[in-house]
Amino acid sequence: IKLLLTFDALHKVLNLFIGTFLISYIMQTSLNEILSVSFYQMFYYAALVTGFIALGNWVKQKNKSLVFAFHIIPNVALLLSVIILKGEFSQYVIPLGFLSGLGAAFYWAPMHNMISEKVSPKNMTKFSGYKAAIGGSVKIIAPILLGLFITAGSYVEMAWAMLAVCVVELILMFFLKPSL
What we know:
By secondary structure, this protein is an all-alpha fold. About 85% of the residues lie in helices and about 0% in strands. The two termini are about 15 Å apart.
């Protein structure tokens, strides 16, 4: 249960950067920011829906923990694209939006199943309470820290820090018991 809560907190931090702050970066580097953000979001949700449909039955049949581990790949690719493309990032909003949505689908499709498997109905209220408390704290503290670090440095430097979050997630994957 603690590991699932840790994954949720790390995901919220990463999602703040990939969502809110990355959209700000697109707006800062794009010539037509409204259109760029619209395409990024449209392809994010298209990939999310496509991913949920594609993963729906596959997650139930395969090792959920293994499928869950795949969510790191699109996130790392997205963060590396921020680092490599720098100011040209906004020229690739369609594939990068799709990549972001795919990462979200690979996270949420198995996560919901793992929670229902690993948390007993008796402990579900307690788990949900902890999840809400930790998530609320992260949503208050992380934007302030991310904003300060971006202001002091850059989006590219922050992408490096978010890669470190992905590495922590990858290390924690080894402690996640297989969920069939």
